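2024-03-11 09:14:02 DEBUG pipeline.ingest accepted 1 chain
2024-03-11 09:14:02 DEBUG pipeline.ingest length=246
2024-03-11 09:14:03 DEBUG pipeline.predict start
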Amino acid sequence: MKKAVILFTTLLLLFAFPLSALADATSFEYKDEKTGTVLIIPAGWAEVKGADIGIDGDCVYVHRDTEKDVEEADDSDEEEDEKTFVPYIAYASVDIAGEYNDKRREEVNLDSFSTGELAKILGISEKELAKATYNETDYYRFETDAARFTQSLEKGQRVTGYVTVKNGWLYKALFFDDTDSDVYDDFKTLMGSIQLEGKTPEVTQKDSRLITPKKALSLAVMLAAIIAFGIVLIKTKKKYKKPSRL
C-alpha cells in the first residue's frame, strides 16, 4: 500500500509541474497604469526585472525558448559562425510635459519635436530615425547598437525601437535582437497591438489569469499531499482496528 501511495503522489506531481509552462503559453494584455495605454505581450515571453539586465522600461520581457537555446549553446564546446543573442522586448512611457495642464498637454505631440530633438532624447544619431506607422499612429523607427541603451547585454547585440509622443507622454517600444530573428514577428505583433491611452486592442488569445499557473501548481501539489495523507491515515486506521468478537 505504501508503494501505491508513493506512486500515486508521484503521478500527481508529474501532472502538476507542466502547469508552470502555461505561464507564458498564451498572449496577454499589459496595461500602462500611468497612461491607460494597452498592448499585447505575445505568447512565449516572460517578464524580467529590467534593472537586473540594465534595460530601462516599465515592462521588460525575455523570450523563454531562445533564452534556453542560447544557454545550451554557451555550454556547448562547438564553435558557431554567428553569435546567438537572448532577445528582449521592452516598453516604457515617460512624462515629458511635467506640470502642464490637460489643454497644454494636448499640444505636446510627435510633431512638437524635430528629429534632432528626438535623437538627442534617445541618445542616438538623427540619421538613424525614420518615419513609420502602426495602428494609424505615427512613430519614428530606429535600429542601432544595443550598447547605447544598456551595457549589460552581449557585445554586438542590436536594438530596434519605435518612439512617439502623444499628450505630453513619450512612448517607446524596443526589441533587443536582430530583425531577422525568429521572434521579431512577435515584436511586430506587439507594435500592432498598441492602443494609446486606453483604447482596447483585439485579443485572440487573452489570458485572464483568474487562476495563475503558479497557483494551479500549488493547488495540485496541496491536493496530492492531502490525498496521500488521507490514504495513509485510512491504512493506519485499518491496521490497528480491533478484530471483531466471534
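2024-03-11 09:14:41 DEBUG pipeline.report The chain is about 35% helix and 25% strand.
2024-03-11 09:14:41 DEBUG pipeline.predict end
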